[in-house]
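Q&A log
Question type: sequence-to-structure
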Amino acid sequence: MSEYKEIFKAESEEHLQQLNDSLLGLEQNPKDLEYINTMFRSAHTLKGMSATMGFNTIAELTHEMENLMDMVRKSQVAVSNGLIDVLFECLDTLEALVETVDSGETIDISTLQGTLTKAMEGTLPVNDIASTVAESIETIEADVGTELEPEEEVIPQTDIDLSESEKQAIATASGDGNRVVSLKVVLDDSCVLKSARSTLVLINVTKMGEIIKCVPDEAELEDEKFDLEFTVIFATKTTDEQIIETLKKISEIKEIIPTTISETAGSDEKEEVVKETESEAQQTTGSGVKRSDAVKSIQSVRVNIERLDNLMNLVGELIINKIRLNQLASDLNAKDLDESLANLDRLTNEIQTEVMESRMVPIDQIFSRFPRMVRDLAKSEGKQINLIIEGKEIELDRTVLDEIGDPLVHLLRNAVDHGIEPEEERQNIGKPIAGLVRLAASRQRNSVLIEVEDDGKGMDPAHLRDVAVKKGLLTREEVDKLSDADALNLIFMPGFSGAKTVTDISGRGVGMDAVKTKIEALGGSVKITSVPGQGSIMRLQLPLTVAIIQSLMVTVSDETYAIPLGNVIRDVGIKASDIKTIEGKEVIMLRGEVLPLLRLHDVLNCPTEPEEKENLIVVVVEKMGNNIGFVVDDLLGQQEVIIKTLDNKILKNMKGFAGATILGDGSVALILDIATLI
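Response status: OK
Response body:
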């Protein structure tokens, strides 16, 4: 639950901020009810989230806020100062409730609920909240035994965090008649030896007084773990002019900024008590919640996916240039250059990893929508379904994740509609009345495997052959040549459907074709296994990202091509004399299996005639569970390539190519799309 709580808190804070902004707008423009509509939507969303998470107090309070805002929308309650105050009180209480979801602390909202009831009944005094706050301030003033003086001078403080011992050192130094100075030192942009310059500064500061704190600390200054500026807090009797005069003698120092920290021992303690109690009085709500005005540190930011795409493109360009530099360095054989490029290579890889990680999103963001969908489908079909979800924590690139939602909807709909038998039929064959549908994700090296499994009736290859012939998709002669495994893949043909009737769920013959097209467009693959009477499993193999992939680089004639490593099984050397011909197609026996061969010269229509060689290189690739051997001229090895999409109108829909990449020598290599090439 801790992971979900963090997500809940992050989203709740956004809705609370929306409520706050709209409420401020409503206060300035009471007649603009669009603010109420916006608040209503935010409160409604927050209520649904809270109820789902089991945070009933939040759900209860937002529900009553909805009732009040609905009465305002219907002009049954007028917008007044009292109403605004009540809604702000609700907002503060909601903020406190969200903060307590980790600790489980309870907050009594009964008093606030009573105030909301008064607001809905129209019996709330206009200045009800203001008078309560004023009374609280008077009570606290009496308890503290001092009056609040708005004109009281506030002692300047440094914005650097200080420990208790450091504060005590400052107080002691002030009591001894010293000044405490916060000295900011900025080095020149051209400064090379930052640690040497910072050490000289510290030596000179020590001569002028006693150092209390360094930011960063002295060890980090020595290790140069800072940019071009650092701060020293020290006690001294030296004037600012003398400090500047002393330090400006050190070279490569751009700026010296001394600031006096006024600190009188004991003077701030009383003031802090008064300020704190005043703050508490002004921010105490009717539910006993104390609202803090302290600005929270931002732990995360939301970034537009387009900005991440642009960043990924820039990283891709950086990698391309890195490869180019490495190639030039190998030609020059310069040792110093090799060492520098090794560091560049390390930094580039780290940047690439960070950018890719920033694009990764838990697959649960897609999976979480399916339990309700399956429940509704099962109910409409009169079936009982137990949905099991596994691997929700697996992460995928946001671009990939956005694209797999619809394919998974199709697969789950088919599992419920076609796969799981009616209850009576399941009972008659001895199966549990409730059908099982399993949705699971798992990490497989550089890819993610998603499985959609059901314990339904499965698929009969013979029936699928008959349907293909009946639909006019294939002839009887063609389907009879198909193995049972190949016959299962008939369901991916456009227009194929085994449903006896067309419903709003399935039966139009477009779902599975769309699944295959979408997954293969992402560089993935789809496999089916099914046993009649026992059920089916759909396996989707997906790349972690669609921007950068590992590829096997090959040459065909004078051209270089990239084969995605996810499709490559192995590469082998064969003799041309071992190639056999079956029904006009070249094959070879490899490890006891018949391997069909394709010469990439012919598939890609290369203009150069290949030389007749006795020894051939074959790259074995996998497509839809079947292995095929590509005959190539040479292997160049594995390489990380950046996918550049073929946006040109002529090339965009060309089959056989997933995109292009730029090589280290500046030339362009096409990336083969195994799924559509053959």
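Response note: The longest strand covers residues 435-444.
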